[in-house]
Amino acid sequence: MFWTPLHAYTLIPQFIIYAVIAFVISRALKDKDYETRLLPLKICTVFLLVLEALKQTASILTGYDLYCIPLHFCSLFLYFHPLACFYRGKYREKFMLLAGVVSSCLFLFMAVYPNVIYSDEAIRSMWNYICGTGGSFFELHSVLFHGIGMFTFYLFLFQGLVRFNKKKDIVSIVAAFGLYCLIVGPFAQLIDTNFNNFVHSNAPFLEEIRLNVINILGNFPGQTVYVLIISAGTVLVPLIAYHVLKWLTEYFNGSPD
Q: Which of 50, 65, 228, 251 is 20 to 30 A off residue 199, Cα-Cα?
C-alpha cells in the first residue's frame, strides 16, 4: 500500500501548511540579499543536524545499531544541506543544486509512496513517545526529520534558491548520486545493513523482483543485478526530481529566459 489512512491524515495537512509557510517566507524575504533569504534553510539544516546528533547519541547509549549509520538516501540532507548553506567556496551552487534535488526527491516520495519512507506504525510510535505512553525516539526522529526535510523543498521552490544550468546540472547529479551508489551499495552488502534498500526492498513489488532474479541467477549474481537496478533508480529519481524542481521554480519565480 503506497498510502495508508494515517499517512493521509498527517501528510496532507503538512503539504498545505508547509506550502503556505514557505510562500509567506518567500514573499517576506524576496527583496533581501541572498544570505538573508537563506536563513530559513539554514535554520532547517541546523534542526536536521541536531536531530541526527540526538539519534546518534541515543543509539550509542542503547547499543549502537549499524542501521543508524548516516548512509541512507535521506542522510544526504546531512551533507548537501550544510554545504549549500554554510560553504562559501566556488562549488556552493553545485551543493545548492544537490540539496534542492534531495529535498525534491523526498517530496516526490512523500507525495507518491510515503509508506516506503516511514510506516503508519512509526507515526503511532511517534505519538506514543510524545505522550509518554511508550513508542520510540527513533520513530520520532524519523517522522520529524523527514517532515523538516520535506519543508525545505518548499523553501527551494518558492524562494528560487537554485540557479539552473541544465547541461552542467545533469552531469553533477549523475556524478554525485552515482558516487553515492558506488560507495554505499557495496558497503551495505559488506555489513548487511539495508541502506537505501540496497540489501532488500521495503517495496513489496521490488522485493519480489529481487527474489525472482536471485532464484534465476543465484545469490551473488542475482543480488548484484538487484543492486544495479536500485542504483539506476537512485540516479533516475534525482534526475526526475531535478526537472520537477526546475519547472516548478520557474513557474512560481519566472524563467530566466
A: 50
What whole-number distance in Å separates Cα of residue 159 and Cα of residue 252? Answer: 9
Residue in the structure block whose three cell numbers are 550509542: 60
Burial of 213 (0-12, 13-18, 19+ CB in 10 A): middle
Place of cell 526537472: 243
Is the whole-model pTM more than 0.85? yes
Q: Measured between alpha carbons, how far is 143 from 55 in angstroms, rounded to an integer?
A: 12
What whole-number distance in Å separates Cα of residue 105 and Cα of residue 156? 12
Could you tell me if 216 and 208 are in contact, meaning their C-beta atoms sit under 8 angstroms apart? Answer: no
The residues, ordered by sequence, that sit 6+ positions from 78 with a Cβ below 8 Å of its Cβ are 48, 49, 52, 70
What pLDDT score was predicted for residue 201?
94
Closest CA to 247 of 166, 151, 148: 166
Tell me: pLDDT of 1 over 90. Answer: no
Rounded Cα–Cα distance for residues 97 and 99 (Å): 5
